[in-house]
Design a protein that fits this description.
Largest sheet: 7 strands, mixed
Shape: globular
Helix content: 40-55%
CATH architecture of the largest domain: 3-Layer(aba) Sandwich
Radius of gyration: 23 Å
Distance between the termini: 55 Å
Strand content: 5-15%
CATH topology of the largest domain: Aminopeptidase
Order of helices and strands: HEEHEHHEEHHEHEHHHHHEEHH
Number of strands: 9
Bound molecules: zinc ion
Number of domains: 3
Length: 430
C-alpha cells in the first residue's frame, strides 16, 4: 500500500489550485497541458485541504470462472477473461468487456446445446480486484499454476474492450497470425468491409498494427509468470480512463451508440477461441517468434549503443542471428504442417503447447523473480508499459553494461530450447 494518498483532480479543482500557486516553477519537461505554469510549491499564502476517505479493511474477492469442457481435448484450455471490479461506474472499464464475455458465454452455450461442443476446453473468467493491483487473476493463476503450465493454450483478455469504433489489439507472437486471420472473417458494422480491412485502413504496411503485449491488465500472470500465449483486444476511441464519467449514459452516447461494437468484439473473441479449440493442430504463428525477436533485438541494440561506451560495446549480432535461424526453422515447420500427418497430432500439440513456456526462467527477472518470462513483462516502473525482452530492457533502463553478456547466454539458451521444440514439430508433421 502506498503511504502517500493519491487523488486524481478534475479540471475544475485543478484550475483553482494550480492557478493560485506562486512557488518555484517545475523544471522543463514537467509542464502539463493546462494553461497555467505548473509549480513545485504553492507559496507561503496557499493552503489546500485534501480530504481522503479510504476505509482500511479486509475484503474478500471473488473470481467467477465458467468452463465448457472440450469434447476431445478437455485438458487443453483456452481462457477468455475480463475483470469486473471498477473504480466507479465502470461502463467501459471493465464492463464493456464483461458484457461481451457474458454474451459470448451465451453463444457458446447455444452452440454446445445444438451439438457443437468445442473440442478443447473454453473457460470464461470474470476477475475481481484488478484495479487494486491485478489481484484476482494473479491469485487464480498462482493457485492453478501447474495445471495452467500443462494445459494453457491461450489467454484472451478484455479490459475496457469497447470505447469506440477503432479496432486494436496486442499479442504474443504466436497468436498474431490467428488474430489477423480471424478479423478477415468478420464484417465491420455499418460497412461492406471486414474488420481486417478497416483495421488496416489506408496503411501501406503488409499488416494492420498489432502491438506487443506486456503490462496493465489481467493477462500479466498468464503471460509473464506462466508463459501462456496471450492476447488483448477491443475497439477504442473514447476512453475516459478511470473517471467518474465512465457511466452507461456516456457509453451509449459516445462509445457505442448503436451497440454494435460489443458484438463485434464478441465475434473476434469467439471465433479466435473456436478456431483454437477445434483445430486438429493448434494454429500458432510459429515463425513470428523469430520475426519479432529480430525487431526487438535491433531496438535494444539502439538503446544500449546510446550509453555503452565500453571499449568493446555489447553486440546483439549473435542474438539477431539466432532469431533469424528460429524464423527459418519456424517457416520450415509451418510448411510441414500444411500437409501434416494427423496420426501425430497429439504429440505435435504437446510440443506446440510447450513453445511459449521455453521463455520461462526459474530465477525470473533482476527486478522481481515473480516476472519469469524472458520474452515479455510489464515495465517495473509503472506496470503499464509492455517490455519485450525485459531483462535487456531493464539493463538499458539503468544504463548498465556489466550484465549484458550473462543475459545474452540466457536468451541464446531459451531460443535454442524453442528451436529444438519447433524442429520436433517439423519431424512429427512429416
Ligand atoms: Zn480495467
Amino acid at each position: 500500500m502506498h503511504s502517500i494518498p493519491v487523488l486524481p483532480l478534475p479540471y475544475g479543482a485543478a484550475k483553482e489550485i494550480i492557478g493560485r500557486m506562486k512557488g518555484q516553477a517545475v523544471p522543463s519537461g514537467w509542464q502539463g497541458g493546462l494553461p497555467y505554469t505548473y509549480r513545485i510549491e504553492g507559496g507561503p499564502e496557499l493552503k489546500v485541504r485534501v480530504n481522503v476517505t479510504q476505509k482500511r479493511e479486509i475484503q474478500r474477492v471473488y473470481n467467477v470462472v465458467g468452463t465448457l469442457v472440450g469434447s476431445e481435448n478437455p485438458d487443453q484450455w483456452i481462457i477468455a477473461g475480463a475483470h469486473y471490479d471498477a473504480w466507479a461506474f465502470g461502463a467501459t472499464d471493465p464492463n464493456s468487456g464483461t458484457a461481451m464475455l457474458l454474451a459470448l458465454s451465451e453463444s457458446l452455450g447455444k452452440l454446445s446445446q445444438a451439438g457443437q461442443k468445442p473440442k478443447r476446453t473454453i473457460k470464461i473468467a470474470h476477475w475481481d480486484a484488478e484495479e487494486q493491483g491485478v489481484i484476482g487473476s494473479t491469485e487464480w493463476v498462482e493457485q492453478f499454476r501447474d495445471e495452467l503450465d500443462a494445459k494453457g493454450v491461450a489467454y484472451f483478455n478484455a479490459d475496457g474492450a469497447v470505447t469506440g469504433r477503432n479496432f486494436g489489439a496486442a499479442s504474443s507472437p504466436s497468436l498474431k497470425g490467428l488474430a489477423i486471420n480471424t478479423t478477415k472473417a468478420i464484417p465491420f458494422p455499418d460497412s461492406s468491409k471486414s474488420v481486417y480491412d478497416v483495421w488496416l485502413g489506408k496503411r501501406t504496411t503488409p499488416e494492420p498494427p498489432l502491438g506487443n503485449l506486456g503490462g496493465g491488465s489481467d493477462h500479466i500472470a498468464f503471460y509473464t509468470h506462466v508463459g501462456i500465449p496471450s492476447w488483448n483486444g477491443g475497439t477504442g476511441g473514447h476512453s475516459i480512463y478511470h473517471s467518474n464519467f465512465d457511466s452507461f449514459a456516456y457509453y451509449e452516447r459516445f462509445c457505442d451508440p448503436t451497440f454494435k461494437m460489443g458484438p463485434l468484439v464478441e465475434q473476434v473473441f469467439g471465433i479466435m477461441a473456436l478456431r483454437l479449440a477445434n483445430a486438429d493442430v493448434i494454429p500458432y504463428d510459429i515463425s513470428r517468434y523469430g520475426t519479432d525477436l529480430h525487431t526487438h533485438f535491433e531496438g535494444l541494440q539502439k538503446l544500449t549503443k546510446a550509453y555503452d561506451k565500453t571499449p568493446t560495446p555489447f553486440s546483439f549480432d549473435a542474438l539477431i542471428k539466432a532469431a533469424d535461424d528460429l524464423k527459418k526453422i519456424g517457416e520450415d515447420c509451418e510448411a510441414a504442417l500444411k500437409s501434416v500427418n494427423l496420426k501425430n497430432a497429439k504429440a505435435i500439440n504437446q510440443e506446440l503447447l510447450a513453445l511459449e513456456r521455453q521463455w520461462i526462467d526459474k530465477d525470473g527477472m533482476q527486478y522481481g523473480s515473480w516476472y519469469r518470462s524472458l520474452y515479455a513483462s510489464p515495465d517495473p516502473y509503472s506496470g503499464y508499459a509492455s517490455w519485450m525482452l525485459p531483462a535487456f530492457q531493464y539493463e538499458a533502463s539503468i544504463r548498465e553494461t556489466a550484465n549484458l553478456k550473462k543475459w545474452e547466454q540466457k536468451y541464446l539458451d531459451a531460443i535454442a530450447r524453442l528451436k529444438s521444440r519447433v524442429e520436433k514439430v517439423t519431424a512429427l508433421a512429416k
